[in-house]
Design brief:
alpha+beta, five-stranded antiparallel beta sheet
Length: 274
Amino acid sequence: MAWSPARNARHLRRYREIVEVLGRNGFGQLVDLLAAQPYSALPRRLLRRWRRTPLGAPQRLRLALEELGPTFIKLGQILSTRPDLIPPAYIAELAKLQDTVPPEPWEPIRAQIEAELGAPPEELFASFEHVPIAAASLSQVHAATLHDGTEVVVKVQRPDIQETIETDLEIMLHLATLMERHIQEMDILQPVAVVEEFERSIKREIDFNIEAAAIERFGRNFQNDSTIYVPKVYRDYSTSKVLTMEFIDGVKASSKEALINAGLDPKVLASRGA
């Protein structure tokens, strides 16, 4: 179904924001090529003036995605794993999106937990750290302790993220359609197909019930393999937007020096992982 930016005010505001962020980060020419400038409240001369920037295109793209928020950050993260689609310079820059997402303030997260689990975290858990130990584009993770003393991590989806994603996906699909229509070189990249695949992926990711089931299924499949440990999922403290799992301490697999300092052999780990 064709997407109309006049469909409602919310979509139009977001569309304007995206066009203006692209222009502000030096992609005014792309806005012109897509004939998307009419969706911006800013004059064409300002979008053109913003093109003059000393930063390279890969860095400007990363900055634009960061400014546009979770959905676009997630798209950038996925693209950073696709050297078959984009050049190495873009891969290197977009990879920086993996660990640079600011966390959500505590009060909206607290409200999200209470709405999902039926009680505030102060009642549900013996302790709950307000400051997250990790923050991603769609969710963030907090350390907590159950009343029986079990240490857990609680993954909480960012409030209102589903509505944001739905709006952004419609706009992404419209922009991808414009790319295929107006930029011949885009045919080989198939931007519409990329967005459609991204839509399927991100919609699975924002349903934590799917993730919980995958963790449990993986655990059953490898229950007899002593080289693999899968954390327990606590279903009583989990929903489609909150996922509570056993806390497992460890070392980041991509940090070779930390692995060696911990007495672990990267080659053995790579073999087991494969």
